[in-house]
Structure formats: C-alpha cells, structure tokens
C-alpha cells in the first residue's frame, strides 16, 4: 500500500542538538557548532583589549597613523589572551611596543573584562 501526502500535509522542522545551531532556507540546511573553545575565548578577550585600546587612542585624540606603546596589567585569562594574541593586538592598534606587565605610560585607564580587573596604559611611541 502506498500513501501519498501533499506538501500542505507535511510539517518539517529543524531542531539542532544541544551545542549546535541550525537554519534552513532555499533547499539547504546549515548547522554550526557553537561550542566556545578556550582558543576562541582567548581570541575574543584579545579583541576586547583591542577595542579598549582603540577607545583610549580616540579619547587621547591620537592621529590615525600614530604608533603607540601599550602596557597591560591583567591576570588570568586576559593576561593569557594578551600574551597569546600580542601580535594581533599590536597590529590592530598600531602598537610598536606591547608589554603584558603594567607600567604607567602617562595615560591609564582601568576596566573590567570578563570579571577581571585590567589596567591599560598608552603613549605615543618614540620612534
């Protein structure tokens, strides 16, 4: 016996497993693994440091092309992120002298990033 169903009689739904996200459209289904690995978390923290440093550059009214020195005072994951992604932070902020050891360079701000206290200090680089 064969049973034929019309499209109006079907209700097809996508439900992703835990830890995944799914969407469909135009005959395709996309499934993404949304687990956050430690490497992704550290990169996110590094990008947050970039954002804060860029905000300080703007607040200090530094020229767009100005090179800077940066000192980062942090512990835990923020410090690990700064050490692991120092090249990315330096490139994104035009930093020629980045150290993950706090020293006051003349323009300092304190932040909380992911419940961790962070001190950032910047100055225009001496070339």
What do these coordinates show?
This protein is of the alpha+beta class and 127 residues long. It has a domain at 38-124. It is 31% helix and 31% strand. The protein is built from 3 helices and 6 strands; from the N terminus they run ββαβααβββ. The chain has helices at 38-59, 76-84, 86-93; strands at 20-25, 28-33, 68-73, 95-99, 107-113, 116-124. The strands form 2 sheets. A 4-stranded mixed sheet has the order 4-3-6-5. A two-stranded antiparallel ribbon has the order 1-2. A hairpin with a 2-residue loop joins strand 5 and strand 6. Helix 1 (38-59) crosses helix 2 (76-84) and helix 1 (38-59) packs parallel to helix 3 (86-93). The longest helix is centred in the middle third of the chain and has 22 residues, at 38-59. The chain is elongated. It starts with 19 loop residues before the first strand and ends with a strand. The mean pLDDT is 91.
What is the average of the pLDDT values? 91
Q: How much of the polypeptide forms β-strand, as a percent range?
A: 25-35%
- Termini separation comes to 84 Å
Instruction: Spell the H/E element sequence.
Output: EEHEHHEEE
Strands, count? 6
Can you summarize the main beta sheet?
4 strands, mixed
Cα-atom radius of gyration: 23 Å
Helix count from the secondary structure assignment = 3
Report the helical percentage: 25-40%
What order do the strands of the largest sheet run in, or round the barrel if closed? 4-3-6-5
Weakly predicted, low-confidence segments: none
Helix vs. strand class? alpha+beta
């Amino acid at each position: 016996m064969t049973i034929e169903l019309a499209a109006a009689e079907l209700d097809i739904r996508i439900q992703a497993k835990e830890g995944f996200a799914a969407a469909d459209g135009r005959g395709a289904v996309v499934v993404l693994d949304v687990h956050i690995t430690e490497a992704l978390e550290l990169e996110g923290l590094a990008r947050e440091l970039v954002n804060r440093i860029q905000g300080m550059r703007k607040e200090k009214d530094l020229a767009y092309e100005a090179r800077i020195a940066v000192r980062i005072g942090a512990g835990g994951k923020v410090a690990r992120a700064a050490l692991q992604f120092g090249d990315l932070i330096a490139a994104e902020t035009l930093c020629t002298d980045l150290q993950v050891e706090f020293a006051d360079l003349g323009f300092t701000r304190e932040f909380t990033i992911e419940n961790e206290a962070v001190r950032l200090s910047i100055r225009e680089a001496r070339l």
